[in-house]
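[SOLVED] Need 3D model of a two-part complex

Original post:
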Amino acid sequence: MPPGALTDERDVREAYSAHAPELYGFAVRSLGDSGLAEEAVQETFLRAWRAGERFDPQIGSLRTWLFAILRNVVIDLGRARAARPTVSDEGIEASVEPFDEALLSWQIEEAMRRIGDQHRRVLVETYYRGRPYAEVADELGVPEGTVKSRVYYGLRALRVVLEEMGYED
Amino acid sequence: MKTDGCRHWKEELGAYALGHLTDDARARLEAHLEGCPTCRAEADSLFAVSRLLPHADPERFGPAPQPPAELGKRITATIGSERRSKRRQRRLRFGLGFGGAAAATAMAVLAIFVLSGGSEGGPEQHIAFRALPSGVEISATLEPQAFGTEIHMYVKGIRSGTLCRVYMRGPRGEAVSAGSFRYRWGADDSAVLSAALDLSRAKALVVHAGDHTFVAPIGRAEAAALRNQPQQEEST
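Solution:
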């Protein structure tokens, strides 16, 4: 059994406190329902625990592994939904692609939440809202150069947070 | 060029990576990048981040929903009961020497625990029937519930189609019915029953399977007292 395997309840508790908020946040975003999201997170940790001996930190991070399990759980939930007569079969395989796209989106949104307010603010105003730097500088009561430098440090912070979260491209 | 001298350039790099520089400013910066590998590497890594931005929805930058507090407890409780029943299945497997079929039984048990959300009603008890005929396996897990006791029965090795009636014995030896099930070979070998008797007051679990009766003690004191008695009241 590799060291770091997820084999007892304490391991699971630690894994839960480290990763459940993220898994849950993502499950809510991806499933659009908090009850289903709870179900998905519970099933993810149960499957992780049952397969705990097979988890090897040498191969990949615990977070990556948990998200891979969640992916399967979400697909299974999609199948269960698709098995209901009102939903067509095409919904089944199609759900995989949106999962990866949704996971990517969610990771960036989560990283945005974790960087400082000042950094997020300038990225939202200049990038997402496409506002001129001078206008944003005016509104914030700082020189334009400061807005520019916040954009720079904001992107750097985003990069660091994504790395910390284990983002792999 | 020394890194310190690049500070001005570096602060332009964010706007550059987002495509926000004027043509003039961009040309000046690119001329600098030609000769400065440090800034070039920094620019590349910022481009890697800026390429991700279109995937995010700025409406979703607010606080993320948090998992409900009881979710973690529910998960550890479910895992706890799975672990206990696994251990029990393992003991049974070694004790009675039966083979791979036990794995299927274990899975059925796990399924029940997952569906029922674990031992919410308190600690469950595992009941072993001893001195069974060769090839027969019977065990049970009892869970205290508000209505009485929930009984998860696992049966293997008896004739398919056999009607099994289950009772619990109360403090005065009275029988409280927990219902019945029919054992089908090759089908799911577990059944969930319930009896209107508090687990704390129950003294024994009784299974009438065809013309056999099997009794298993409930609770420690009783188990010790019954240890040397045959568990099978009638024999073939």
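Edit: The radius of gyration of chain B is 33 Å.
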